[in-house]
Amino acid sequence: xxxxxxxxxxxxxxxxxxxxxxxxxxxxxxxxxxxxxxxxxxxxxxxxxxxxxxxxxxxxxxxxxxxxxxxxxxxxxxxxxxxxxxxxxxxxxxxxxxxxxxxxxxxxxxxxxxxxxxxxxxxxxxxxxxxxxxxxxxxxxxxxxxxxxxxxxxxxxxxxxxxxxxxxxxxxxxxxxxxxxxxxxxxxxxxxxxxxxxxxxxxxxxxxxxxxxxxxxxxxxxxxxxxxxx
Length: 230
Description:
Layout (H helix, E strand, L loop, with lengths): L1 E4 L3 H13 L4 E4 L2 H11 L3 E5 L7 H9 L6 E5 L4 H9 L4 E4 L4 H20 L10 E4 L2 E4 L4 E4 L2 E3 L3 H12 L7 H9 L7 H17 L5 E4 L3 E4 L4
Parallel strand pairs: 1-2, 1-3, 3-4, 4-5
Antiparallel strand pairs: 6-7, 7-8, 8-9, 10-11
Helix pairs in contact: 1-5, 2-3, 6-7, 6-8
């Protein structure tokens, strides 16, 4: 089930038609407060949230959902402000789509989010992972505890950010294209835009810079890799 929260009934109708045509059941909410109530009663697998809504905006809905659930969240925004997108991703959103958008693209991203959520729920939980700590210079990831640190100083990351830095750290010498990071960092064929990957990378860099370093190097025209981390 997908929760669609937007104060525009025409947009909700478009999204409903596109998703139901693919056999995906949806529940609608016309404002942020209604979205939180629907989340608590319907327990959707994926949430589509408009950034600007009455009663409560989409980022606040995301904050409340993330306190209780890891369900994938996709933001809709008609605003061009990069800060809106960054704030949404920082709070735990998985992706964003700028209005106007292609219903086909939205359906593809929702399907990928549903697959990712189902795979995570069904994946076996190993009793003792072979390797739970990844280190490279001053960068350290505790995979079991979902913690990152730089020179012993903890860096708080969202789920998507942690997935991306873990992917990069898996092979420190490898240069990852955006497409490879979508596949390796998100997993299970997730579909996000290159802009989303770039936004996550910018936020990762900012967070690690605040802790004293930058673990990511840009290879222009190709992608990203782990830097020296000295």
